[in-house]
Design goal:
By secondary structure, the chain is of the alpha/beta class. The chain is built from 3 helices and 27 strands.
């Protein structure tokens, strides 16, 4: 059999079928790719939407928990510690997400209890059942619940692994976790931090009764409009009606001073040195004892170097005197009795305020005194007649009455005398808080905040 060569070569039958098959394969690949891309995009959108939804669920848990806390405060009932919310209950804030069950578990932890507030940490874990990688997200918030029932909140933050909720409360508030209440005998007793009060500024806290004597006209006592006075007692009728807006009644609280370091006085160095002259320089390479200083018109410069040092005084009687501290170390004075007259300054050249004075018996600020201290004073008893300006706290452990007399002009960071009766006849300017057992404000006196 013979074939014709030109007919075989020129035969194009079946070519269209080949083209059709190739086209079908290409279209199939494109179709599968498009479907895959569409599916991936849809899944990513679903994951993103679910991830966002689970965050809102966790956030809704916080909202519900805060409502529960407010209700507990109103009802005077116990604040719960664990709460559970679910779309399977009749809660309008929790609905099924794409037919999947939603839940939020909230833990409420009391992180700190202070005289005027409680600090709570709320952590809410939101969950969507069957939501793949986005099964849960956690958010947290700090709440400060004041004793009067008001609530302050920090912003909501998302919890990462091992993280803690961010705080918006001032770390400088007395009594926060950075405060040093003054452990007895550790050498770090600090009268300047208020003993861990945790109180907010601009408040006067009185354990028992308050009396405001203003000659009946409502103008005799001047109180800064931004000050609030709280007491654990009900209205006793001793506060003129013109001052009722300053008052918060029936707010019980407790406060204890850090222990007075009596043992430190028993550990004073046996060696005693004497000072003489009007311009004295003292380099401290160890703690020293000075039995008595009873002088006027002199300047004492004390160099503590880089170490913490202490000076023990029997009696410290200063008149027109100046004590300047240099060096980076902390200096503490332990004094049996102190009397201040005329202009007296105790300060650090570098402006630091880590100076502390402990007076075992009595601190007398005489009528003509003008006392400036760049630090804090902790005394058993005090008599205030003159000008008294300290950058730190005044802490008084006496259980007796102590007057701030009509000639006194007092400026302090805070006054802490939880065992005593404060009778104010002069002027008080304070920055943070006043705590006292009883308070009497006489006519022609004033209490204001440091601007």
């Amino acid at each position: 059999m013979y074939f014709k060569k030109d007919k075989v070569i020129g035969n194009q039958r079946g070519y269209s079928l080949v083209i059709a098959l190739i086209s079908l394969a290409v279209l199939s690949i494109l179709g599968v790719s498009i479907i895959s891309i569409s599916s991936n995009t849809s899944n990513a959108a679903l994951i993103e939407r679910t991830d966002q939804a689970v965050y809102y669920i966790a956030e809704a848990g916080l909202v519900e928990a805060k409502a529960q806390i407010s209700k507990a405060l109103t009802d005077k009932s116990t604040i719960p510690t664990n709460l559970h919310y679910s779309s399977e209950t009749a809660n309008p804030d929790f609905k099924r997400h794409m037919n999947m069950k939603t839940e939020a578990d909230v833990t409420i932890t009391n992180k700190d209890t202070q005289p005027t507030y409680d600090l709570y940490e709320l952590i809410s874990i939101g969950t969507i059942e069957g939501s793949g990688k986005a099964t849960s997200r956690s958010v947290a918030q700090l709440l400060r619940v004041e004793k009067d029932g008001s609530i302050e909140t920090c912003p909501i933050t998302e919890m990462e692994s091992g993280s803690a909720p961010s705080t918006c409360f001032n770390p400088g508030d007395p009594g926060d976790e950075n405060s040093n209440p003054g452990d007895p005998g550790d050498g770090n007793d600090n009268p300047g931090d208020g003993g861990g009060t945790g109180l907010t500024g601009g408040k006067i806290h009185v354990f028992e009764e308050i009396t405001i004597n203003d000659n009946g006209n409502g103008n005799g006592v001047k109180i800064d409009k931004n000050i609030k006075i709280s007491t654990g007692f009900p209205d006793n009728g001793k506060v003129n009606k013109n001052y009722k807006d300053y008052m918060i009644w029936n707010i019980p609280f407790s406060y204890q001073l850090p222990p007075f370091p009596n043992e430190k006085f028993n550990q004073s160095p046996s060696q005693t040195i004497n000072l003489s002259g009007t311009n004295i320089e003292l380099n401290l390479d160890k703690d020293i004892k000075i039995q008595n200083i009873n002088t006027e018109k002199f300047k004492l410069t004390i160099n503590v170097g880089s170490s913490d040092r202490a000076i023990y005084f029997g009696n410290l009687n200063l008149k027109q005197a100046e004590i300047e501290v240099i060096g980076s170390g902390k200096l503490t004075f332990y004094i049996d009795n102190m009397t201040i007259d005329n202009k007296v300054s105790i300060y650090r050249k570098d402006g630091q305020e880590n100076l502390e004075l402990f007076v075992k018996e009595n601190a007398n600020i005489n009528h003509s005194a003008d006392f400036n201290l760049k630090g804090s004073l902790y005394t058993q008893r005090i008599t205030l007649d003159g000008k008294f300006d300290i950058t730190g706290n005044l802490m008084i452990s006496t259980s007796n009455d102590y007057p701030i007399n009509s000639s006194a002009d007092v400026r302090v960071k805070g006054i802490y005398s939880p065992n005593a009766h404060l009778l104010n006849g002069g002027k008080i300017k304070f920055e943070e808080n006043i705590i006292t057992k009883k308070l009497t404000l006489h006519s022609s006196t004033s209490i204001s905040l440091v601007k």
